[in-house]
Amino acid sequence: MSPNVAVLGAALGAVVLAGAAFYFFGRRVERHLAEQAARSAEQQSGRLIADARRDAATAKAEAILAGKEEILRSREDWERDDPSRLNSGILNQYLSALVFLDRGIHPKPLSFRLLL
What is d(CA 112, CA 116) in angstroms, rounded to the nearest whole number? Predict the structure, then answer.
């Protein structure tokens, strides 16, 4: 066997081995990058969900506060219209609704009666 053929065979063998090694190394790096991207996406989705829950809690608290303010305004208007109504049943319903809202319980809708 001539030395050129031996060198050529050795070079070809080295290229084949290097190609296989680079292939497996490349696949390993690709898999690592894909796992890293999946972890990053999962963390981002967790942050988005936490932000959405926080925003929902804030909106709920604001809605409850707005309801309480509306009830207080209605009560003040009611008292201002006729002070003799202070002990009426509707005022008690408003007050009980405030208590329920303070406790986080949603009361039944208030029933409005005509007072004669």
Answer: 13
